[in-house]
Amino acid sequence: MSASPVLPSSPAGSPSAGSPSAPGPSQAELLDFVRHVAADAELVASLPIDPEGRTWVRLDGPGGSEAWLIGWPPGTGTGWHDHGKSLGAFMTAAGELRENSLAVRLPTDGWKTLELNAGVDRERRLTAGAGRAFGRYHVHEVLNESPVRHAVSVHAYYPPLPLMRRYSRSGQTLRLEQVERPADWQ
Ligand SMILES: [Fe+2]
User: Fold this and answer.
1) Architecture of domain 2-184 in CATH?
2) Residue 161 pLDDT greater than 60, yes or no
């Protein structure tokens, strides 16, 4: 797959990754971190697994970033969402995940529904040891499509997520459903 995960406004490794006054970790550094954690078999195995739902453990990410180890039972997924102005990286540590993403930057505010152009969809299948970094306003959904196998992944975001926008999708129509704040998921 040749889809570029990086939008022109946020090149990989850009020193502008954080706020202008205090540059934080770059996409490349976050990707290095999640790769390192995903290779730590003992840490990955320490994640409690629940066959009924996702599980997670918070990690100390580099440079003040927010990081998580997440367990995905078969058939679970996130739904479409973005990460606001945070950039990030994630990597599969066990099992296989699928990422559906949009190769366009959406207007950030002022819309409730948006018609996506044809050809903006990207799909990745991420087996253990495979991952990606992403820039600000990246829109995606992550799923464990396996009918039988649990998956585990490692995620890091910088700055720590101030919000996530949740979307529903019907065909090419994307609809903003909800804006979640940290209090909603911690
Ligand atoms: Fe995400």
Assistant:
1) Sandwich (2.60)
2) yes
